[in-house]
Predict the 3D structure of the following.
Amino acid sequence: MSAAFGFLCGELCRLPRRLCRLLPLLLLLAAASLAALAAVSAGAGQKESALRLALVDKDDSFLSRTAVAAIAGNEEIAALFTVENCDEETAIAGVQSGRYAAAMLFAEDFISGILDGDDSAVRILLSDALRRNGALVSHAATTGEMLMRAAESAVNAAWQPLAATLPAGDAARAIERLELACAVEILTLPTAAFAAETLPYSASGLSLPAHYAVCFSVLLLFLCEALFAADIRGSCTYAVFCRVRSLGVTNGVFLFGKCVIPFLCRALLLCGLGFAAARAGLLTLTVGAMLSGFAGLLLLNLFLCALSAAASATQLGAAIPCAMGGACLFLCGGLLPLHLLPLRVATIGAYSPFGAACGLFAPLLGGNFSPQASATAVLYAAAAVLLAVRRLDRLVRNGGLTV
């Protein structure tokens, strides 16, 4: 017990010197991560704003302008879209670039085309992001049909003020023909088709900025291992480890001692990230969120330190957790939006060590607690500790020659 206590005290006494050496690198990592977080969150905020719908009226007649104005003024449309009138080239280019989520192109004399059932009277274009999304493809036909109904209802709205100026018979026949073609009804365009972009985030209770904040925060904690892996590798030599073993320091105490310093540094970083999140209005400090975040910090620290100890025989000891963090950042939707990732890829990310850590830190930013993430993190930490203990045992038995 005295040897173990002395070992832990020695590790803690080295903390000021380590912090002085690591502080510039930690600040550099924090600045880079926060800059990336700000850039991605800004893009996420733009994505979270109202979707743009482009309206192109080639007919440019009184009746067509009235119909297009009826679409733009519809409450359901206005709640879902920011409607913009533009020419065809601008609309097509905007849809291709992603500026517009969708575009409705009204052909010349489209009023007659709609009444005659001409499918080309109104063209509906969806952005590449929506068309590439497998979940949205199934909604595309329904969305197009309902957008067409919006145009048809708008045509009906445009006809109403003119009906009084027509002879009774002509007005009746015109309205009857319109009703047969349009089945006039109040537009009930659902938001599900386009809201599917944000469903992967809202299902976890996170907003888009909060999702990216969690991802980049966990990435920063992963990258910190590059600063400690060299120290762990230097301590996991045959001579050093045999010396501490001869003093009665067990494998568990050795690993615990090596976990203390990274844990404290990650805790300091997490506090700094929490302060930044609080300034951005993302932080949610409840008892459950704090417990979940502490568990995430503890399990992630144990996993990474044990992983570095297990891989300490190679120069790649520091690169392994860093490469894992970068790869898992992509798998968890930190580089590409989740709705653009195949379902299998997103599932792999959710069950990765990175994804498990994100699930545990999510409640700090308003997300839901994930028992799946807790169980996954515990399993990864236990597996890493087992590998590290086996590595240390083999180090003593084999003189440090094999892993």
